[in-house]
Amino acid sequence: MRHSRAPVRSAISVRGVPPPLIGRDDELRTLVDVVTHPPATVLIEGEAGIGKTRLVQEMLRRADPGQRWSAIAHCRPLGESSSYGPLAEMFAAHSESVLARLATGPRLSPAVGALGRLLPELSAALPEPPPMLGEPKAERHRTLRALRELLGALVPAVLVFEDVHWADHGTRELLRLLIQRPADGLAVAATYRPEDSDGLALNLARRHSGTATSAALTLGPLDRAQVGELARALLGVRTVSADFAAALHRRTAGIPFVVEETARTVSAEQGPAGAEAGLLRELPVPVVLSQAMSERMATLPATAVRAVEALAVLGTAAGHQLLSEVSGLSEEQTNTALLEALARGMLVEPEPNRYDFRHVLARQSVYDRLPGPRRRELHACSASALGRAASPDLVQVAEHHRRADAVGEWLATACQAAVQARDRGDPWLAADLYRRLLSGPAADGFRAGEIAVLLAKTAVEFIDSDDAITLLGDVLGDERLDRAARGTVRLHRGVLLRRKSGCVAQGRDELEIAVRELRDTEPAAAFHAMAVLAEAQYGDLPLAEHRTWIDRVDEQLPTISDSTLKTTVLANQLHTMVQIGDPAGRERTGALPERLPTADGRRQLTRGLLNLADACAWTGHYRQAGRHLRAGLARIERGDGTPFLLCVARSTEVHLDLLTGRWAGLADRAAQLLERYGDVPSVRAELSLVRGSLAVAEGNWSQARRWLREPARPDFANSCVPMSLAGSAALIRARLLCGQPRSAAQEIGKALASTRRKGVWSWAADLVPVAVGHYCRSGRREDAALLTAEFERGIDGLDTPLAATGLQVCQALLADCAGDAVLAAEGFARASARYAGLPAPYHAALAAEQAARCALRGGGSSGAAEMAAVAEQFQALGAAHDAERCAAALGASRQRRSGRPAYGTRLSPREREVAGLAAQGKTNRQIAELLFLSPRTVEHHVAKAMRKCGAGSRRDLRGPSGTPGAE
């Protein structure tokens, strides 16, 4: 049911500051000003007939038309035949001007060649089409980037999206991209109806980049005086009476288009003398435009009426053949009917051999006057005609079935359309169809539950966003769902919430309710929910509580005969067991079947392999992780996957490459995947961890802090714990390396508290060695020993080689702290060898560096050679900062072995270097970072330099060349 809306006053909002609005002059000035200062975006809101189209047309006329390329992309009702339909139609209509611009514009990248299939009229100017990516989401992402680049090649330009409330998902995605990442020189305006926009304004506004000129216009009805002014201009008279203006305002509600049509009707029938209030009462009430259209329709021959009515029902521009089929007219009759309708101004020809109404309200007026039986008949004919196409648009076909009250056909076709949308990689369209089915006449009783479950499964398999969670939340409020359907929807919503940062606890609550709702009605689905609750990686719930669910699942697993369900549960169960280091986990990996009969089962098997790859990566079984990952990717290439599984696989692949030292081009790969999959929180966190870890190795502290902010979440209760602990360990190391021990200590405290609460010490394989090292350097040997012992107890008996090797590092650190350099060096060397065997070359190099430092301090002859070898290892990996640190330690060692010369009152080379930096205003900590020294050593050098130079303060040190006593 459509509710009445309160009248909306006109308003302008520029960069969030809405100024007062008087008439349309202010909107026009604002609009022209914004679009002539690109990059720019304007959102224009208003109900049907409020004047949005006329406003943008006037704007295009005034916005330097001789210099700027401009066009309007029209979105159509009843959906589009394909994604980006309005763009394809717009480029086809403007192909000549576009080709002329491209001929003198910048060279297009090869990616733009992907538009050749979408824009055949421009294919001659586009690069050769690149190979298909074989991944719907990647193809869509490439198409979006290509469209943005193509529009950027036409600048300076103004592009208007008309009626985006009807836009297909692809067109909306492009609009969001242009708002979020505006192209230089391009101004974008979008018009929409608030009553049909489904939160569009808020969704687009939050995408705004903050770097482009922007405005939001809300067009409200005209007031009485403005209606009078418009009527005066339309009627061609010098003035109209106040009574006429008031009556016209009442009859039209101040909607400009209705005022215009009414005034023109008055003018046509009565001339300027008709501008009298009394004559308005003779016009039909309440919709003047409908009356005008009815009168025009009455003048048409019967065949023309049938053609016009058929076009009104089709809901989009149509050609001669389609109109003939829907109207039931012969080809000759259709031709004559179109000539009559065009001559009488009922229809226009927007492009060769395609016909449409001049305005949407004109179409609606004709549609509304149709008697119910005739309207249903024409919708049935439209569904039949459109369904016979070579590649029918099932969305439109389904909608016509719905409006024809063909409930069975509507249900069947809409479900087919949803499957078609999924196969084409358009999950949003599939989900929207299921949503429409739930709100339509076909979704009663059992059907509502069935459709709700299909919607939930679509959301989990293909969609990972706030909108999907909200959508399933709305579905849960549907009173028609029985307990089983509601529990299944809740199960999938819980899975989505657990993937979303900050909603882990909420997702767990949903899953626990789902178990209670499903255990009596759908025990298989309840079993699935229990398996998800058994997963320990999300949230800070103690492992013991997850163990309860793990045991319950293990008890029931042998009783499950459904191979797909069994594989679904095993994918979760094995992931958890391997990830926490349970020795039985890897032993049971053979329980996953090699093949399954159903498509869903095969997807679950793919998920199981990818879960094992992820779990093995966190525990140090890197070679097995690689085997599972390759097997999973091979299955995805064969079609046994989903876009979500592919993005997870690519993210795991990059993470595994970080751990195993395959760093060549890794930062660029991670950046590309972040751009493609940045809307998936878990994947975004993992890729950010990779980029942050590489930044630490490079010594780029600002970038390290930026990228580690996402994985090193302070709220462990609502995050992926192994990811958060790994991010925290990398962040702590970065802070220690750049001389921030206090903030590092705070991070250590938070991360260790989370580890203790969770009780999974295998995930602290990187954290604990960093913490123990910090405690040792800070004089907290007892704390270091206690933490090492706690770590040893926590991983005792677990199958976690990464943590076991980390324990060896901790024990070597304790030996070094106790002054036993020989024992420490031996321990670090053993740890380095074990790391290398995983293989974890970066960890191996860090441990080898510690061993070399012990050898250097012990005065052994091998220390220098070992340190030089480690520096080469770091350099080969791309860890520039670590290599420089080793080189600095090696240089200092060589200086000590050759004997320190006596400089007397003169400054030594190191003292001159430190004095120069101090004179520049750098702090001891900054100097220590630059010279790879400890802050205490820098303090010593500064004090000696000041004493030798007789300096009263650091500012009195004049630098190396001018320092008193310098050679």
From TrEMBL:
Residue ranges of coiled coil: none
Protein name listed in UniProt: Regulatory protein, luxR family
Gene3D superfamilies recorded: P-loop containing nucleotide triphosphate hydrolases, Winged helix-like DNA-binding domain superfamily/Winged helix DNA-binding domain
MF (Gene Ontology): adenylate cyclase activity; ATP binding; DNA binding
Any one GO CC term of the record: cytoplasm
Domain HTH luxR-type: 900-965
Single GO biological process annotation from the record: regulation of DNA-templated transcription
InterPro entries: AAA_16, P-loop_NTPase, Sig_transdc_resp-reg_C-effctor, Tscrpt_reg_LuxR_C, WH-like_DNA-bd_sf
Keywords: ATP-binding, Nucleotide-binding
Region (Disordered): 947-967
